[in-house]
Write a structure and sequence with these properties.
single chain; alpha+beta; Phosphorylase Kinase, domain 1; Aminoglycoside 3'-phosphotransferase, Chain: A, domain 2; two-stranded antiparallel sheet; 11 helices; globular; Phosphotransferase family protein; Aminoglycoside_PTrfase; Kinase-like_dom_sf
């Protein structure tokens, strides 16, 4: 097994014994199957459980796998209406386990891998999706100055910056020519709306499987996986939800394409967007197709990076990473359709 699958248990135990108040071993660890970017482990002790997220070892793309940013943003959100797990410590010394990591509380709740939420009632599905909508609106209404995150992202046009960043990331991890991706990279800058001045905290990968919900209610206990968070434009997060729903249903696509949503108690795209706008006091959103196309483009670039790491032997879940790599052209094609639509 590669180092992404295992932890140096002795090193982790010794470090936590020195630095984490109340920690008592012995320690056991189990790797979560999800979390393609930063390997994530459940740490078990006799008194309580924790979660450890680490950077993958090896050569990484610049600015990727920023566990220090994940730690900072969750610390800042602790006193807001955005539910996050409590973070305990950040270790940036690669000498401890081979890469930087942080430790946070283990949220004892339930996680839905797919928005269809198989086995749940229509009432539960509707309530969970509405809670997802509420938390997203709350995230975009956080006072970034008050929580100390005004410098968490650079100034300027968010979409212009992101398109440039992810184009570079994609080219750095490109393994074969994908015509749809090339066409999307060329078309996005020309389709970009004028900057409307909105500047909020954005999650960067907001979807239902990055959330933990209470076992006995639709209440969200915590939003996970903040690696791509920054200060940017809120419509990118909103469009990311809609993007996910347009993918095929099932374990890989995890979407709602061709699903009879009304029969499952799930809202339409338009209903979800309208409820979000209502919560934020917005009249509506013009040219939503661009924002949707952007999220397809960014996800295609992310997945390409995951696929490249699988080929290089650095992926958290190599087999799944290789399967995901087959979706790059699908995301790119959908991005082009969104621009035209």
């Amino acid at each position: 097994m590669s180092d992404t699958q295992n932890l140096d248990m002795d090193a982790v135990d010794a470090y936590l014994a020195r630095h984490l108040e109340g920690y008592q071993g012995p320690l056991e660890a189990k790797k979560f199957d999800n979390g393609q970017s930063n390997p994530t482990f459940l740490l078990k002790t006799p008194t309580r459980n924790y979660v450890l997220r680490r950077k993958p070892p090896g050569t990484l793309l610049k600015s990727a796998h920023a566990v220090d940013r994940e730690f900072r943003v969750q610390s800042a959100l602790a006193q807001t209406n955005v539910p996050v797990g409590k973070v305990y410590l950040l270790c940036e010394d690669d000498a401890v386990i081979g890469s930087a990591f942080y430790v946070m509380e283990h949220l004892d709740g339930r996680n839905f891998n797919e928005p269809t939420m198989e086995g749940e009632s229509n009432e539960t599905r509707a309530a969970v999706i509405d809670e997802m909508n509420r938390v997203l609106a709350e995230l975009h209404m956080v006072d970034i100055d008050a929580v100390g995150l005004s410098d968490y992202g650079p100034p300027g046009n968010y979409f212009e910056r992101q398109i440039g960043r992810w184009t570079k990331q994609y080219r750095a991890s490109e393994t074969a020519a994908i015509p749809a991706m090339d066409a999307l990279i060329e078309a996005l800058p020309d389709a970009m709306p004028e900057d409307d001045g909105q500047r909020t905290l954005v999650h960067g990968d907001y979807r239902i499987d990055n959330m933990i919900f209470a076992k006995d209610s639709p209440r969200c206990l915590g939003v996970l996986d903040w690696e791509l968070s920054t200060i940017g434009h809120p419509y990118a997060d909103l469009a990311a939800v809609i993007m996910q729903w347009q993918m095929p249903p099932g374990k890989e696509g995890r979407g709602l394409a061709d699903i009879d949503r009304a029969a499952l108690g799930l809202p339409s795209d338009e209903e979800f967007i309208a409820r979000y706008c209502e919560r934020r006091g917005l009249p509506g959103i013009d040219r939503f197709g661009f924002y949707l196309a952007f999220t397809f483009f960014r996800m295609a670039a992310i997945i390409q990076g995951v696929y490249k790491r699988a080929l290089d032997g650095n992926a958290s879940n190599p087999e799944r990473a290789k399967r995901l790599g087959q979706f790059v052209d699908v995301f790119a094609e959908n991005g082009l359709k969104a621009l035209k639509g």
